[in-house]
Amino acid sequence: MRTLLCIALIVAGCARETARVPANPAQKYAGTWEGRSVQTGMDSGVTWTSQITATDAGTVSGTLAFTGLGMPPVEVRTIELSDSMIVFEMGPYESPTAKAEVITRSEGRVSGDSLWGTFVMLPTRGGGVVPDMSVAQWNNAVMRPNPGSEPIRGTFVATRKPPAP
Question: pLDDT tens digit string along 119-138?
């Protein structure tokens, strides 16, 4: 019995646990997404495709293109990212629904190959909104917009396309 106990202690002492490296949360958001954004109060929405790449630094970057509108792709930048949530910014770009140049911030959640969330669009003209504003500056522009620069809000849903074979 004593021998068996000594062997168990030696084996336990020699066993090494494999170091667990946390996965890059940005990988959850990488891929080609096809989605639809719908403004609050609207029923048809706008379809789009987004190409998202995860970086080694734990951020995402990419583009979003509105389906069938012939507009150039819009740059997508990470504002905040975690394992359960992403906040990203797009633009400035000419919004097909607002008919104005806007910057959009979206907050999304991912589960498998589904991505959904909310967005807020703010016009760049007259609103003083510029790319890469701090969260505090953005929130101030949303909560206290200049007259004629009211935010446009809505929701989006997207599905990740499987990689090409």
Answer: 999 999 876 788 888 888 88
Write the pLDDT tens digit of every residue in 59-98: 889 999 998 888 899 999 989 998 889 999 999 999 888 8
Fold type of domain 25-160: Lipocalin (2.40.128)
Residue ranges covered by each domain of the chain:
25-160
**What are the helix (H) ranges across the chain?**
2-14, 135-143
3-state helix, strand, coil in the chain (%, to 5): 15, 45, 40
Find out whether 136 and 116 touch, Cβ atoms under 8 Å.
no
Cα–Cα distance, 10 to 108 (Å, whole number): 49
Q: Residues 117, 155: contact at Cβ < 8 Å?
A: yes
